[in-house]
Amino acid sequence: MVVMPTETVYGLAADAFQAQAVGQIFQAKGRPANHPLIVHIGSLGQLESVAIAIPSRALDLAQVFWPGPLTLVLPKHPSVPAEVTGGLDSVAVRMPNHQQALKLLTFAGTPVCAPSANRFTGLSPTRAHDVDPSLGAFAILDGGECQVGIESTVLDLTGDCPIVLRPGDIGAESLSAILGTEVSVSGEASPKSPGQHPRHYAPITPVFLVETLLPEQAGLTLGDPSNPDQIKMNGDPRQYARALYAALSALDRKSLSGIYIERPPQSGEWAAVWDRLQRATSRE
Ligand code: TXA
Ligand code: MG
């Protein structure tokens, strides 16, 4: 297991074809065995080794968005160990847009599965020093600060209609524009996407959503901070997403009684941020 930087978050990576190595990832994260992992490829040529019956719309999207923060769910190649996909007959694949990740993939010469490098339900690291050393990785590759900052968009292409299973930097409208068809967005706790636990991406400190931070509260504000435990967030959804996990992780280290987050706008471009905020504040 090696911690690999990507443009979204740091991943805990291992050879996708070695069931034993894959098992180590589940063990290190404390992740339930039925939560499937994302397979990362370094070239389009590797796609055929992990997926079969690849629809042309997958290739259309790959051409535009890869390398990048888009994960495609496709029919699984029989040689991918069942451990990777939690027993499903589909596999999630993406090509990360990060030079070190692509170098690692080329050097390894094999696709690697890589969930976010954190313990189950915890915050995903977006900087090397936020990676939990107790995960037991052989090495942590420091690739600097992740430029996207939240996990990739997961798009299911196994059905008639493409479905966004996890919102991310690439929105449903952008996907729809390339495909020329409608792309739907799955609701909460989609049975199609195991591993979308309601409480996910959460710090240890309890997190609450509020309209406006009180002067004495600690948390994330869109206005001007009134104490040192308030972090000013950017009003642009992309910049906000990029800084979100690092900000939560910094506050989480302060042993506060609570972290309060001012509600961002409800509009569509905030969908991915809202998804993570709802999971961070879920009490389930
Ligand atoms: O940005 C990312 O995708 C990061 C970096 C490291 O690449 N990885 C990541 O992996 O977020 P992970 O394991 O934390 O998230 C995997 C997501 C889950 O939401 C899971 O439900 C979905 O992908 N997934 C994986 N395989 C699937 C499948 N066969 N069918 C449906 N959903 C799948
Ligand atoms: Mg994760």
Notes on the protein architecture:
The chain is α/β, with parallel strands linked by helices and 284 residues long. The chain is 26% helix and 18% strand. It has eight helices and 14 strands. It has helices spanning 19-29, 47-50, 56-65, 82-85, 99-108, 172-179, 237-252, 271-281, and strands at residues 2-4, 11-15, 38-40, 70-75, 90-94, 112-113, 139-140, 153-156, 163-166, 184-185, 207-210, 219-221, 230-232, 259-262. The strands form two sheets. It has a ten-stranded mixed β-sheet with strand order 7-1-2-6-3-5-4-8-9-10, with helices on both faces. Strands 11-14-12-13 form a four-stranded parallel β-sheet, covered by helices on one side. It is globular. The two termini are 30 Å apart. The relative contact order is 0.16. The site of magnesium ion has 3 residues, from loops. Magnesium ion binds at residues 115-116, 124.
Write the layout of secondary structure elements.
Elements: E1 2-4, E2 11-15, H1 19-29, E3 38-40, H2 47-50, H3 56-65, E4 70-75, H4 82-85, E5 90-94, H5 99-108, E6 112-113, E7 139-140, E8 153-156, E9 163-166, H6 172-179, E10 184-185, E11 207-210, E12 219-221, E13 230-232, H7 237-252, E14 259-262, H8 271-281
Parallel strand pairs: 1-7, 3-5, 4-8, 9-10, 11-14, 12-13, 12-14
Antiparallel strand pairs: 1-2, 2-6, 3-6, 4-5, 8-9
Bound molecules: threonylcarbamoyladenylate and magnesium ion (MG).
Threonylcarbamoyladenylate binds at residues 6, 8-9, 11, 36-38, 69, 71, 73, 85, 88, 90-92, 96, 114-116, 151-152, 154, 165-166, 192-196.
